[in-house]
Specification:
Elements (H helix, E strand, L loop, with lengths): L2 E7 L5 H11 L7 E6 L3 E6 L2 H7 L8 E7 L14 E2 L5 E9 L2 H10 L11 H11 L5 H9 L4 E9 L6 E6 L4 E4 L3 E5 L11 E4 L4 E6 L2 E6 L4 E2 L4 E2 L4 H5 L6 H7 L1 H9 L3 E2 L4 E2 L8 H5 L3 E6 L1 H18 L3 E5 H4 L10 E7 L5 H12 L3 E6 L5 H5 L2 E4 L12 H19 L5 H22 L2 H11 L4 E6 L2 H17 L2 E6 L17 E5 L5 H12 L5 E6 L3 H6 L2 E5 L7 H19 L18
The structure holds fructose -6-phosphate (F6R).
The site of fructose -6-phosphate (F6R) has 14 residues, from helix 10 and helix 17.
Length: 608
């Protein structure tokens, strides 16, 4: 997720100011680097967010049009040279991009053979060079842009500008949002309406596969095959903050609703389904060493550690490698026994959590191979680990982690396939996991469609003082994750517990005022879960079950049911956690709490 913003006008407004102010309202989309290009003034780029860019923009940086970008790094470190906008070899064609060009390596290779030289390691730069190449044969900038877009595969929301036609800017959309702003003598392109709204309320949302050209006085839209399109103009009555949240009331809800795209992005380009293989470029450099590993220690904190627990079960079942999960804050003080055949794997959204970082450093000191599953590109843990896999979940703004958890589980499943296939997992098994992974986004959508039902349940249980969450096997970790979500957002006491462990203590708490959330999908643990639910019902405890679609029987036993689609047992946490995230969200909202910023918590915990 990156933010793009472009402006062209003849109203006398200073384009540099319009662009820099606009970037500020897109900052929630990325803050790794920022950059701006104006044909009249040149380009300025900087690592960091908009404030850093502003410091570098000279007083005389003035113009009537330009393109600007905020980067959430995917390919290439968040350095100045990798910051957008990127240019072609001549420095005439400039581009800003949100998304991932999947075939950039092939395209780059072919362009290099034709004499193009690249400055950055990003996938985006290839777009500018590709347009340059097509301009040699096509008659116009527009046609060259269309020809280039027809060659790329992947996702993009882009703005393209040509120095020789400074008042026209081209936008295109495939999988990443693009909205046009229609003003009086000025037009805009942006990732969402928030930077446009101070200037005009009239917008046009592009659809996938559409290209638009804006000039100060108008806009036109066509498809990739050059046929014209007419799109309706929408009057927006949101304010800028609502626009950043995509119209949702909170970032948390927006991030939960992004689940299907997040899983798609974590999988993108990483599966060879017909061969049952996972391709993880970030691990290529250590693939041989991974073959000698006889133990994995997962280090993480909070939600990331619960993802690790599910990962432990996946790895042990699918790779045969013994795995332990260690909380970052404990690991470094316990004198862990590690040797060069141990891999210490950090899981972290921010990549900055101090406890996890120190655990990685401890592993390194003791000679382990260090690996990371990290969402934030170029973060300290991403840099200090020997190798790793990025989540590609985009920035997570809400303090409570939701979409990052889904992406962590997805990457763990990919890693289980990657390691498993190198250690005897059959091709058939690999194909089965790949197929199930690809089906997940649609299944998550099915769960999200039940939002209203979950909201009603939240209202029913909002006055509970305590909550128990129980699950077994893969859903053991989900029970803990469900509980942490509820307690951190709604300040209700909630405990996660292995359903089998309940009888060793926690069941003593159960009475008619102590509800339980039971993860009871139709899997190898189903019968055992049903027995545990009976134990609770015998003590008059109310039970909400997360169950598999079509399981009518369970509805007769429990008080409330939320149904989720069936999937492979090892992937079921990815579906089962979604209703628990929504439940915690709606309970906190109902209580009137600050959902995105729960008390006493911070998004990135860089203290011990
Ligand atoms: C809970 C939550 C925290 C984080 C934990 C680790 O919703 O967000 O428990 O998961 O602080 O953070 P990262 O993943 O950034 O290392």
């Amino acid at each position: 997720m990156c933010g793009i913003f472009a402006y062209t006008g003849n109203t006398g407004k200073e384009a540099g100011k319009v662009l820099l102010d606009g970037l500020l309202s897109l900052e929630y989309r990325g803050y790794d680097s920022a950059g701006i290009f104006m044909p009249d003034a040149g380009s300025v780029k900087s690592p960091g967010a908009v404030a850093e860019l502003r410091k570098k923009v000279p007083q005389d940086f003035k113009g009537k049009s330009g393109i600007a970008h905020l980067r959430w790094a995917t390919h290439g470190e968040p350095t100045e040279v990798n910051a957008h906008p990127h240019a072609d070899s001549s420095g005439d064609i400039w581009v800003v991009h949100n998304g991932i060009i999947e075939n950039f390596k092939e395209l780059k290779h072919a362009l290099e053979k034709k004499g193009h030289t690249f400055k950055s390691t990003t996938d985006t730069e290839v777009l500018a060079h590709l347009v340059e190449e097509h301009l040699k044969t096509e008659k116009s900038f527009e046609k060259a842009a269309l020809a280039a877009l027809n060659e790329v595969r992947g996702t993009y929301g882009i703005a393209l500008q040509y120095k020789k036609e400074p008042d026209r800017i081209i936008a295109a959309r495939m999988g990443s949002p693009i909205v046009l702003g229609l003003g009086d003598g000025e037009h805009f392109i942006a990732s969402d309406p928030s930077p446009i709204l101070p200037h005009t309320k009239k917008v046009v949302f592009l659809e996938d596969g559409e290209v638009a050209v804006i000039s100060p006085d108008g806009h036109s839209i066509f498809k990739l095959d050059a046929t014209k399109v007419k799109r309706e103009v929408t009057e927006i009555d949101w304010d800028a903050e609502q626009a950043q949240k995509g119209g949702y009331e909170h970032f948390m809800l927006k991030e939960i609703m992004e689940g299907p795209e997040v899983v798609e992005n974590s999988l993108r380009g990483r599966l060879i389904p017909e061969k049952g293989l996972a391709k993880l470029g970030g691990l290529e450099s250590v693939a041989k060493q991974l073959d000698t590993i006889d133990r994995i220690i997962i280090v993480a904190c909070g939600t990331a550690a619960y993802a690790g627990q599910a990962g432990e079960y996946m790895f042990e079942a699918e790779t045969g490698i013994p795995v332990e999960v260690e909380i970052g804050s404990e690991f470094r003080y316990k004198k862990p026994v590690i040797n060069e055949r141990t891999a210490v794997l950090a899981i972290t959204q921010s990549g900055e959590t101090l406890d996890t970082l120190e655990a990685i450093r401890e592993g390194k000191r003791r000679g382990a191979l260090t690996l990371g599953i990290v969402n934030t590109v170029g973060s300290t843990i991403a840099r200090e680990t020997d190798a790793g896999v990025y989540n590609h979940a985009g920035p997570e703004i809400s303090v409570a982690s939701t979409k990052a958890f889904l992406s962590q589980l997805t990457v763990l499943a990919l890693l289980a396939m990657f390691l498993g296939r190198r250690r005897g997992m059959s091709e058939e098994k690999g194909r089965e996991i790949a197929k199930a992974l690809k089906e997940l986004p649609d299944k998550i959508r099915t769960v999200l469609e039940q939002r209203e039902k979950i909201e009603a349940l939240a209202k029913k249980y909002v006055h509970s003082r305590d909550f128990l969450y129980i699950g077994r096997k893969y859903n053991f970790a989900v029970a803990f994750e469900g509980a942490i979500k509820l307690k951190e957002l709604s300040y209700i006491h909630a405990e996660g517990c292995g359903a089998g462990e309940m009888k060793h203590g926690p069941i003593a708490m159960i009475d008619e005022n102590f509800p339980t959330m039971a993860l009871a999908p139709k899997d190898s643990m189903y019968e055992k879960m049903i027995s545990n639910i009976h134990e609770i019902k015998a003590r008059k405890g109310p039970v909400i079950a997360i169950a598999t679609e079509g399981d009518e029987e369970i509805a007769k036993l429990v008080d409330d049911v939320i149904y989720v689609p069936e999937t492979l047992e090892m992937l079921s946490p990815i579906l089962n956690v979604v209703p628990l995230q929504l439940f915690a969200y709606y309970v906190a909202k109902e209580k009137g709490f600050n959902v995105d910023r729960p008390r006493n918590l911070a998004k990135s915990v860089t203290v011990e």
